[in-house]
Input
Amino acid sequence: GEELVEQFFEDLPGGVFSATLLVMVVIFFLGFILDFIEITFVVVPIVAPVLLAMGVDPVWLGVMIAINLQTSFLTPPFGFALFYLRGVAPPSVETSDIYRGVVPFIKLQLLLMIILSIWPNIITWLPGLIYN
Output
């Protein structure tokens, strides 16, 4: 399986960028329907070794996957975090209000992921300072 994934990623136009983008999009959509445990125990062990072999920093990849999962858990239609909020919100707050209220946070987190993709040193600077 790992060899098939590796060959697929190598055949993608755009190299490491395309492979990383594809992984992030897949994880984002899987976050709609699966819990983080399933994603981290099934998807990450398949794609992470290949991305790491392609030169992606492991700290950066881990942080990006974590932010990506957090963002997908806020996204309707399933949005696990939204169900938790629905459970603690007073009855006067409608589910549609919760969905509309989370949109700015989703946009901010997507912007954060773009910023961290452009400037990965924001993530890797402090661990590099501590461990190197």
Summary: The chain is about 80% helix and 0% strand. The CA atoms of residues 60 and 100 lie 30 Å apart. The two ends are 34 Å apart (CA to CA).
